[in-house]
């Protein structure tokens, strides 16, 4: 055989051996691929990711349903005094007219988680010293011995000044040193932050959002209706101490840099009832004449904002708390003391609604079987419809 022929034979033999080794190695490669841990699947360019199945969507909707409804209940007699002598048998709970079984009943003993949200805007600068003095009252009457609290300050921004703590001295120091901020008031964003913080607390704790500020908002991303929906679903009770915007304007120091006012200091540039001059007393009277319950239900159903200066009163009404309108510095402390007194003297009732409850607004009504008593609780809760 010629040298060139030998090279061709050797070349073919080498090729056959290479094919043989590849065939023997292939199953091992396949086995390695099967045993390798699966990494994240990234979608190919231009390919739409697979959408969740209807079963997954349905499970998500079920998880968003209300598992437990917790209702704070304040009962007072004809003289306005708190009644503490009732038992579980005296109460009847109705959800959309259907009586429910009470699963949990307590009188002021459940552990308490409170978020204190305080307006720190420059607009309330004349009243800020009085607000700072409420630190000791908040720790003694609201926190008492068993509560934990977090503090939020808000103006043009919403700032968490202190996370949840059960140390009253830390909370008092934060309130005593509240800084003066900018002129804005992101009230609804502060409320949303407070509700969010409370929703992460254990379900066994009573959740309370206490707001001290003006009933005005200057451009929050969140709407009041959306905040109240989430507060109801998260079993958050909103109490509020309303600082008078009119009183703040009357006490404000004049500034040469301010633009000319379209109405006298301390008044609103909008029509008032019978053309009366807007004063703190008229402000309180107008707010007291509104149907806060109807406004609260409308807000929760629509998810919209409120166009009247009653946002804090409506928020408290919608969740079972109460609103104190402050006209004098001394009443800031008195209002805080009243809220603390009620928080530790109210009944807590909870029930589990049916698992197939329909979407929409659910009215809660709680009655007692003793005459002459007034019952205040949250008016209801809203279940959003399932996604289309």
Structure description:
- This protein is α/β, with parallel strands linked by helices.
- The chain contains 12 helices and 14 strands.
- The chain folds into 2 domains: 66-108 and 349-388, no CATH class; 110-255 and 276-344, Rossmann fold, CATH 3.40.50.
- The protein has helices at 3-35, 54-63, 128-132, 135-143, 168-176, 187-199, 224-233, 245-251, 280-288, 292-302, 311-319, 329-343, and strands at residues 69-76, 91-95, 98-100, 104-107, 112-119, 148-154, 158-165, 206-213, 236-243, 323-326, 347-351, 360-368, 374-376, 380-383.
- It has a 6-stranded mixed sheet with strand order 7-6-5-8-9-10, with helices on both faces. It has a 4-stranded antiparallel sheet with strand order 4-11-1-13, with no helix packed on it. Strands 3-2-12-14 form a 4-stranded antiparallel sheet.
- The chain starts with a helix and ends in a 5-residue tail after the last strand.
Helix content: 25-40%
CATH architecture of the largest domain: 3-Layer(aba) Sandwich
CATH superfamily of the largest domain: von Willebrand factor, type A domain
The Cα radius of gyration reads 31 Å
The averaged pLDDT comes out at 78
């Amino acid at each position: 055989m010629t040298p060139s022929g030998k090279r061709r034979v050797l070349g073919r033999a080498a090729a056959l051996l290479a094919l043989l080794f590849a065939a023997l190695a292939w199953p091992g490669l396949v086995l390695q691929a099967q045993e390798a841990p699966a990494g994240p699947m990234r979608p190919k360019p231009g390919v739409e990711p697979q959408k969740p199945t209807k079963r997954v969507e349905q499970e998500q909707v079920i998880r968003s349903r209300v598992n437990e409804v917790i209702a704070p209940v304040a009962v007072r007699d004809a003289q306005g005094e708190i009644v503490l002598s009732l038992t579980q048998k005296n109460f009847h709970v109705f959800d959309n007219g259907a009586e429910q079984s009470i699963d949990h009943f307590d009188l002021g003993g459940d552990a308490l988680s409170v978020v204190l949200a305080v307006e720190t805007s420059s607009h309330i600068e004349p009243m800020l010293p009085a607000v700072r003095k409420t630190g000791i009252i908040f720790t003694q009457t609201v926190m008492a011995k068993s509560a934990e609290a977090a503090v939020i300050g808000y103006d043009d921004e919403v700032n968490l000044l202190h996370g949840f703590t059960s140390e009253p001295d830390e909370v008092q120091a934060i309130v005593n040193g509240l800084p003066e901020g900018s002129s804005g008031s992101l009230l609804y964003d502060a409320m949303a932050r407070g509700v969010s913080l409370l929703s992460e607390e254990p379900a066994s704790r009573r959740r309370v959002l206490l707001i001290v500020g003006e009933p005005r908002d200057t451009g929050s991303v969140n709407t009041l209706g959306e905040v109240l929906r989430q507060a109801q679903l998260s079993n958050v009770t909103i109490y509020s101490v309303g600082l008078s915007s009119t009183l703040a304007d009357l006490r404000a120091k004049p500034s040469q840099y301010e633009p000319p006012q379209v109405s006298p200091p301390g008044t609103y540039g909008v029509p008032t009832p019978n053309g009366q001059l807007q004063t703190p007393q008229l402000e309180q009277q107008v707010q007291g004449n509104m149907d806060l319950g109807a406004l609260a239900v409308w807000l929760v159903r629509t998810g919209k904002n409120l166009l009247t200066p009653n946002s804090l009163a409506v928020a408290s009404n919608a969740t079972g708390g109460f609103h104190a309108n402050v006209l004098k510095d001394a009443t800031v402390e008195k209002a805080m003391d009243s809220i603390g007194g009620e928080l530790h003297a109210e009944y807590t009732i909870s029930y589990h609604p049916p698992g197939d409850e329909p979407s929409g607004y659910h009215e809660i009504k709680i009655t007692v079987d003793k005459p002459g008593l007034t019952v205040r609780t949250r008016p209801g809760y809203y279940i959003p419809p399932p996604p289309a």
